[in-house]
Amino acid sequence: MSLSFSALLSALPGCVAQGVIWGIMALGLYITFRLLEFSDLTVDGSFATGGAVTVMLVLQGCPTFWAVMAAVAVGILTGLVTGALHTRLGIAPILSGILTQIALYSVNLHILGNKANQAVSVNKYHLLLSLRDTGSAIVVSLLFAAVLVALYYWFFGTELGSAIRATGSNPGMSTAQGIDIRKMKVLGLGLANGIVALSGGLMAQYQGFADVQMGRGAIVIGLAAIIIGEVLHSALAKNNQNFAVRLLFVILGGIVYYLVMGIALWLRLPTNDLKLFTAIIVAVFLAIPQLRHKGYRSTKKANAREEASVHG
Fold it and tell me: Which of 22, 109, 114, 193 sits most deeply, having the most CB atoms within 10 A of its CB?
């Protein structure tokens, strides 16, 4: 069966919409992964929590926007739990995130009424976005992303935001400057998982249901978006180190990731191999900076040898 380019073109808007939503998730992960340098695995659980809270509140008649804000609040609580496990009980970052993630599986089941999933129809409820209107979904998700980038740019320029960044950059020096790094870690984890829950709430609306497993592998997708965004930033805007620009490239990384996945599905690659394909994509983009650096060094050495031979 031949490949249809029209089918690919029709699928691209949906890939862009999902890419922006996952890019928002990556913005949350950016706080822990890049700013705090904290390996937080809570996100697989808090993403599903955001979706579950949003859908259940909408089903109970809560306005969709406030349902999403409630999801953000619950997401913040999940991050605070992980932070408390690490800072108060001395549990390693990865283990504290895993413990919270495991606990959230049961919590999310209870939120969903002890069901694995709950559907919410755009025909019955006023949702902010839906896959039935991908154009509107792209606009709404981009609006959320733009507001988040603006808030990030403002907050991390304040004294409190700078303290969080300093905590991840140099904990020893931060402590010497009187910064309570334990509080900064807890606050950063709370903010990060609140943003992750926000993206989960948007994704649940987009796909029309919340599932207890919807966050499975979220950290891999988030890391892929961050890494792809950083590689693209290095290639396209290396001289522009503005914080907001770097955040925008994280969103772009999410879009590029889902476009690549859309092309993979269009090429009819086995769906069972998509996780393998994801790992390969991340590995390739991780290797690009190193390969470029090696190529630069090899070229520099070759030029040096050529120059030496000419003068010799």
Answer: 193
**Cβ-based burial of 7 (10 A; exposed 0-12, middle 13-18, buried ≥19):** exposed
How does pLDDT run across 19-52, given as a tens digit for each residue? Answer: 999 999 999 999 999 999 998 999 999 999 999 9
Give yes or no for residue 104 having a pLDDT over 60: yes
Residue with tokens 């809560």: 62
H or E stretch at 245: helix 243-266
Q: Which residue do the tokens 């503005």 mark?
A: 242
Asked if residue 301 has pLDDT above 70, the reply is no
CA-to-CA distance for 142 and 119, rounded, in angstroms? 24
Cα torsion through 14, 15, 21, 25, rounded to 10: 160
Instruction: Label residue 293 by pLDDT band (50, 70, 90).
Output: low
| Alpha-carbon gap, residue 68 to 194, rounded angstroms | 10
Cβ pair 228, 23 in contact under 8 A: no
Phi/psi of residue 40, nearest 5 degrees: -100, 115
DSSP letters along 108-133, please? HHHHTTS-SEEE--TTTS--S--TTS
Q: Is 291 helix (H, G, I), strand (E, B) or coil?
A: helix
Enter the tokens of residue 220.
Answer: 């891999």
The reported pTM is 0.90
Q: Which helix (H) or strand (E) holds 199?
A: helix 181-207
Question: Rounded to whole angstroms, how far apart are CA atoms 32 and 149?
Answer: 16
φ/ψ of 131, rounded to 5, equals -70, -15
Amino acid type, 191: L
Count of beta carbons in the 10 Å neighbourhood of residue 131: 15
The CA-based dihedral angle spanning residues 108, 109, 111, 114, taken in that order and rounded to the nearest 10 degrees: 180
Q: Which residue segments constitute the domains of the chain, with CATH numbers given?
A: 5-306 (1.10.3470)
Residue 16 contacts by C-beta under 8 Å, 6 or more apart in sequence? 134, 138, 255, 258, 259
- Contacts with 2 (C-beta within 8 Å, 6 or more apart), sequence order: none
